[in-house]
Amino acid sequence: MSITTARWGVLAAVIALSGCSGGKPAGQFASNESGATDAIHGSNAHGTAAMAMPSTGDPDTDFLRGMIPHHEGAVDMARAELANGTDPKMRAMAEEVIRTQQAEIVKMKTWLAERQAAKKGTR
């Protein structure tokens, strides 16, 4: 992995995780902005309802059930950047976030489906 790729990855992670704190409710970024730019500051998929679900008793399953809405929130934010952003580097990063996060969502959903099928097979 090149230094540039690693830096972009770290920056994308920082941006995605920055939404997990601040003065607004979960899923919304602290901002004084309004209008089109405010679309990037929150996502229903990243909100409290999607992330606060009852435990299944299986830490692996619970981890992915929480991570999927988190990744979906990152995709929503990246789409808002593409819809409203003008900086070519940020737009490129948004495209990368969409591509990588969607691929990870597919992996996570596949794992959950396989786990569910395996549990049904052992009953």
Automatic annotation (TrEMBL):
Transmembrane segments: none
A Pfam short name: DUF305
Domain named DUF305: residues: 45-112
InterPro entries for the chain: DUF305_CopM-like, Ferritin-like
Cross-referenced Gene3D superfamilies: 1.20.1260.10
Protein name: DUF305 domain-containing protein
Organism: Sphingomonas spermidinifaciens
